[in-house]
């Protein structure tokens, strides 16, 4: 990892990648993390979620949530970009009550790019001193957490400027938002995501009906739709970026057998897993 300029800032909770071009398999590295990438120069083109092409230019931030399928399509030879990779648990903890801003922007509105703000250059200089200093401060963890919280909240401030980011439904309470955010977090942490709504409701200590109600109020989507979309993200990722057989992927994702997996995938994607892999398999 050292040769890739990846610094373990807080164990496996947060990583800082100094040069994206030096990381050959960033897609595998970042699947467990929320990514905040800053493009200082050049151009980056990525495919997000299997269907969205996102362009990032100089002075822009690229925001990708944990578990979201990302496939680099173009990285210009003159690109200068670094990234902060933050575990979902740490990010949600740092954001606190503002987690709904991040979740709504990323998961609902699919805002993946924000413009550079005046504070970013100062933050970048501070980041370098924190991550590259020869002698770590005595209160290293506290300092890094404080830095992370400030930076992410400033990003959320930028996100709020996008159309559709302000709440229009007065019936959505802060408690509803908190439970919905917890649902998304619990969902992202599951190895086998294809579970009944009751499974997730029990983990949140609420009824399935209540989970359905708050999910529809906050996001406009049912919890089952969120579950299915999350499962399909895992399917797309493994079919694109792994050499596992369809049966091995079926087993890994907790399907009873490969036939059921194939039927499930075809109903959602419109093609079989083999057909999808043939058209989208990532070539290293």
Description:
- This protein starts with 5 loop residues before the first strand and ends with a helix.
- Helix 7 crosses helix 8.
- Strand 4 and strand 5 form a beta hairpin.
- The protein has helices spanning 26-30, 88-95, 99-108, 119-132, 140-159, 174-189, 197-203, 208-219, 223-241, 246-252, 258-269, 273-280; strands spanning 6-8, 14-17, 33-41, 43-48, 52-57, 60-64, 70-75, 80-87, 113-115.
- Helices cover 49% and strands 18% of the residues.
- The protein has a six-stranded antiparallel β-sheet. Strands 5-4-7 form a three-stranded antiparallel β-sheet, with no helix packed on it.
- The radius of gyration is 19 Å and the shape is globular.
- It has twelve helices and nine strands.
- By secondary structure, it is of the alpha+beta class.
Distance between the termini: 19 Å
* Tally of alpha and pi helices: 12
Helical residue percent band: 40-55%
Structural class: alpha+beta
> Any idea what the shape is?
globular
The mean pLDDT is: 83
Q: Describe the sheet with the most strands.
A: 6 strands, antiparallel
The value of Rg in angstroms is 19 Å
Number of strands: 9
Q: How would you spell out the order of helices and strands?
A: EEHEEEEEEHHEHHHHHHHHH
Low-confidence stretches: none
Strand order of the largest sheet: 1-2-8-3-6-9
């Amino acid at each position: 990892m050292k040769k890739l300029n990846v610094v373990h800032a807080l164990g496996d909770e947060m990583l800082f990648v100094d040069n994206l071009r030096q990381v050959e398999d960033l897609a595998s590295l970042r699947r467990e993390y929320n990514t905040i990438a800053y493009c200082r120069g050049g151009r980056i083109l990525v495919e997000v979620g299997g269907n969205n092409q996102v362009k990032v230019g100089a002075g822009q931030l690229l925001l990708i949530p944990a578990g979201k399928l990302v496939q680099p399509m173009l990285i210009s030879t003159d690109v200068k970009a670094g990234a902060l990779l933050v575990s979902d648990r740490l990010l949600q903890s740092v954001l606190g009550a503002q987690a709904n801003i991040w979740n709504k922007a990323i998961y609902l509105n699919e805002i993946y790019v924000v413009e550079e703000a005046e504070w970013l250059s100062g933050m970048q200089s501070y980041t370098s001193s924190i991550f590259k200093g020869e002698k770590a401060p005595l209160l290293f963890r506290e300092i890094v957490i404080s830095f992370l919280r400030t930076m992410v909240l400033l990003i959320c401030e930028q996100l709020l400027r996008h159309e559709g980011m302000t709440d229009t439904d007065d019936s959505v309470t802060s408690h509803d938002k908190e439970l919905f955010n917890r649902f998304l977090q619990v969902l992202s942490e599951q190895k086998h995501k294809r579970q009944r709504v009751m499974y997730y409701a029990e983990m949140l200590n609420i009824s399935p009906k209540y989970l359905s109600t708050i999910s529809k109020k906050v996001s406009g989507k049912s919890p089952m739709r969120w579950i299915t979309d999350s499962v399909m993200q895992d399917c797309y990722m493994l079919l694109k970026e792994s050499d596992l057989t369809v049966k091995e992927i079926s087993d890994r994702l907790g399907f009873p057998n490969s036939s059921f997996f194939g039927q499930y995938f075809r109903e959602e994607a419109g093609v079989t897993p083999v057909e999808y892999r043939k058209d989208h398999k990532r070539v290293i």
